[in-house]
Design brief:
By secondary structure, the protein is of the alpha/beta class. The chain folds into two domains: 99 residues, Elongation Factor Tu (Ef-tu), domain 3; 114 residues, Rossmann fold (3-Layer(aba) Sandwich). Helix content is 16%, strand content 36%. The protein has four helices and twelve strands, in the order E-E-E-E-E-E-H-E-E-H-E-E-H-E-H-E. The chain has a seven-stranded antiparallel β-sheet with strand order 4-3-7-1-2-6-5. Strands 10-9-8-11-12 form a five-stranded parallel β-sheet, sandwiched between helices. Helix 3 packs parallel to helix 4. The radius of gyration is 17 Å and the shape is globular. Bound molecules: flavin-adenine dinucleotide. Flavin-adenine dinucleotide binds next to strand 4, strand 6, helix 1 and strand 12.
Length: 243
Amino acid sequence: MNSRKNRTLHQATVTHIEDITPRMRRIRVIGGGLHALPVAMPGQWMKIFFPAQPGEKPQGRAYTIRRFDSGAGAMEVDFVLHGDTGPASRWAGMARPGDIVQLAGPRAGYRIDPLASAQLLIGDATALPAIAAIVEALPEGVAAHVFAEVADQAEEQHFASRANLTVHWVHSDTEAPGTTGKLELAMQHATLPSSPQVWLAGESFMVRAILTHLLFDRGILHTSIDSAGYWKFGAADHRDADA
Ligand SMILES: Cc1cc2nc3c(=O)[nH]c(=O)nc-3n(C[C@H](O)[C@H](O)[C@H](O)COP(=O)(O)OP(=O)(O)OC[C@H]3O[C@@H](n4cnc5c(N)ncnc54)[C@H](O)[C@@H]3O)c2cc1C
């Protein structure tokens, strides 16, 4: 998921806010600099810089481009509302139309292999925006299996897709999705397609455990797997080596 970093900052203004589930907030922003962004793949992401207190440096966090409209110079981003412990979640929790952020990117997304016999897409709540964008982009009839951990049934999303899609939900209940070990267990017991192309993201320890399982117990080639730790339990502004 690595790419050459584009450090140009684009100013964007919040125009719409919608809670698509109780803990997932979709925020649409528009900006003059967004028209020409090279957004062509699902799972591409931006670094979003949030307004800082006077005298402080703006803090940036990585967020997936859920939807992009080049004509309108607009993009939608889905934020997990995990509380006010971090600048991104705090900002999303209080965002209002007219608020301004700075965006850098986009950075690399998921290159769908047209020759892959099946797609395996795995992640926690932070991975859902990318998973939703990937399944929307899959060709008709491709076998695709989604394994996702969210808090509860209210957090399950409907995915629009032309693929032959099977979705397995795991619930973290009172814990943060990605921190319970339940998705790791579900993967160990799952019947998986042979030689799939894999996309995997979420809490860092969870990603490492599932990646190890896929490589060593399932024999899936490393070259067929895109994986990234999107956040790390107990660590602010976690940066995965790949992200
Ligand atoms: C390429 C990429 C794409 C991403 N796309 C998305 C996306 O589309 N939507 C999205 O919601 N997230 C996404 N993330 C994850 C997001 O960047 C992190 O969750 C980030 O840490 C949130 O920043 P924060 O300021 O809210 O918290 P931070 O200041 O980074 O962390 C503060 C505390 O909150 C905890 N924390 C951070 N995230 C979570 C969480 N999800 N649940 C529970 N506790 C958490 C940390 O462990 C820490 O203890 C993406 C990450 C990457 C690398």
